[in-house]
Amino acid sequence: MAPAHLPDAHDAPSLLAKDPYELRVDQGRHVPDADVRAALKSGELGFVHSFTTGATVDGPGVRVVAWTAGCMWRCAYCHNPDTWTMANGIPVTVSKAIEGLRKYRAGLKAMAGGFTLSGGEPLLQDRFVARLFREVKAIGVHTALDTNGYYGDRLSDAELETVDLVLLDLKAWDPERHRQLTGMDVAPTHAFARRLAARGRPVWVRYVLVPGLTDDAAEIERIAAFAASLGVVQRVDVLPFHQMGQFKWKRLGIPYTLEQTPAPTQELVDRTLGVFRAAGLKAV
Ligand code: SF4
After folding, report:
1. In the sheet where 233-240 sits, what is the strand order?
2. Which of 96, 196, 224, 262 could crosslink 201 through cysteines, CB 3.0-4.6 Å?
3. Would you call 263 exposed, middle or buried from its count of C-beta atoms within 10 A (0-12, 13-18, 19+)?
4. Omega before 120 within 30 of 0, i.e. cis
5. Is the Cβ atom of 74 under 6 angstroms away from ligand 1?
């Protein structure tokens, strides 16, 4: 049970997003700091920005996708900066999340899909992730975790077994370039990737293609070689940059540096796909 003084916000139908780019702020501002700390420690509840149904791009089949609130990275191209702050999430207990997911279980199975936890960065709430995935597996639903991998070491080997698929975001190869792009060190992500490989856990790599920022051919070749060397990467999703999230940066008052950046041309997308394919990977 959630602490008695927490409002029953997880019952709110508003968790269901109207579209994947809905701006949401301050949904959890009423939650006392002590309760946030307790939730992070126990994992009994997590802070969730929103969820959608019928998703077909965040793992195999048709999926329910929940976006957690909270991320310590600051990617220049992030299209959901309102997920950076945990206070923008609604507190949701594991039991309520499972109760909600049960309604979709038969449909998800029929459509060879499952449940994906994305963000934000889910592993900022690693205890919630661990508890939730254990329960999702227990009701027989396929699980996918979309993560930048930075806090991958927070999941034990046993907990990793409850993750059927990791959607691992690889953003840049060169450490300095990675730091400029995300504000964070790349080494923990690579360490997590190697650990997933060592444990034979299936991975889909995600690569956001931004003209002038992540389109350097040599850099993509290094990432492709690394991904191929892991031996567990089933597929690479090349995600063309878009401006759908630009309005959020403006509304939140965060300086946005990619205002003039176009979407990649089809030629650039094809060239990038070709680099991954040349490394022996399935890229789409
Ligand atoms: S890791 Fe994801 S949620 Fe976090 S800043 Fe980067 S793109 Fe946004």
Report:
1. 90-93, 45-55, 63-68, 114-118, 142-147, 165-169, 203-209, 233-240
2. 196
3. middle
4. yes
5. yes
Residue 146 corresponds to which tokens in the numbers above?
A: 């979309």
At 5, the pLDDT band (50, 70, 90 cuts) reads: very low
- The set of residues, in sequence order, having a beta carbon less than 8 Å from that of 32 and lying 6+ positions away, is 5
Q: Which residue has the higher pLDDT, 249 or 22?
A: 249
Pocket perturbation via mutation, ligand 1, pick of 50, 77, 80, 192 by most ligand atoms within 8 A of CB? 80
Considering only CA atoms, which residue is closest to atom 6 of ligand 1? 75
- If pLDDT is split at 50, 70 and 90, which confidence band does 230 have? very high
Tell me the one-letter amino acid at 113: G
200 torsion bin: left (phi>0), alpha (psi -120 to 50), beta (else):
left
Judge if the beta carbon of residue 121 lies within 6 A of ligand 1: yes
Is 88 near ligand 1, meaning CB less than 6 Å away?
Answer: no
Q: What is the 3-class SS of 58-86, one letter each residue?
A: CCCCCEEEEEECCCCCCCCCCCCHHHCCH
3-class DSSP state of 206: strand
Q: Which atom of ligand 1 is nearest to the CA of 83?
A: 3
**H-assigned helices in the chain:** 33-42, 94-110, 126-138, 157-160, 175-182, 187-198, 217-230, 246-252, 266-278
Q: Tokens 């900066």 correspond to what residue?
A: 81
* Cβ–Cβ under 8 Å, residues 178 and 170: no
Asked if residues 120 and 68 have their Cβ atoms less than 8 Å apart, the reply is: yes
